[in-house]
Structures are given as C-alpha cells and as structure tokens.
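This entry is passed on directly below:
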Amino acid sequence: MMTDTDIPTDPATDSSGGWYSNEAATFGDRVAAGREALGLDQEGLARKLGVKLKTVQGWEDDLSEPRANKLQMLSGVLNVSLMWLLNGEGEGLADPDGGEAIDADINGLLTEIRQIRGSIARTAIKLGGLEKRLRKALKDQA
C-alpha cells in the first residue's frame, strides 16, 4: 500500500517509472486503466473473470487483491503482463496524455485524494481487526 511519501508530485512527468509505476499508480489504478482501455465497465470485467462485481470494485479501490489464479486471468483478459499489473513495469498500457504535464493545482488535488483514499483503506483494515477482536471477546465472555 502506498504511503503519503510514495506519491510523486507529477505522475505524468515522473522520471522514476512513469504514469503506471508503483510511485504514481496503485494496483487498482492499473486494473481500472486496463479495463477502460478495453472499453469494459466493472460489471463486464467481473463477468469475463467469473467474479462478483464487488470483487472487481474491491480490486480497483485497492481494498483487496486477486488470488494468483485470478491475477493470471486478469492479466490475460486485460492483455497486460503480470508484472505490469503488480508494479507498472513490463508489457502494459502506454502512458496517457502523451506525457503532458498536469496543472499543479489539479495535481495537488489528485495527490490529496490519493492520500485520503489510502488513509481510509488503512483505517478500514484496522476497523476490521478491531471488530474481529470484539466478536472474539464477546464470544469468549458468553
């Protein structure tokens, strides 16, 4: 999962790996980009993979990751390499926008959104752990 310090100032011009690198995009971002490049909606991708819509939504929202067999199927359906899906390196999609720079104000907003999304995902994981511990404690007490 990305931390606040992992987010570049301008993903379109970041020289450390490009638009879809780990520094600029998440696994979910790459799944969504691959799906959109094929002209599929989330429901269409879920149907092709034989999974539920919520499963694809979880992947694209970076709340979950596919198992190895579904990851292999996903790379095949999207026509990208496993490595590209995982870290943005290898056979995948070309960087969008022809490398045009993003306006600093827009980039700042995108960076802030990514930071908040990451924070929410980390909080959701912590909340799930607390809920599990509470259920166990209640069960033990009964």
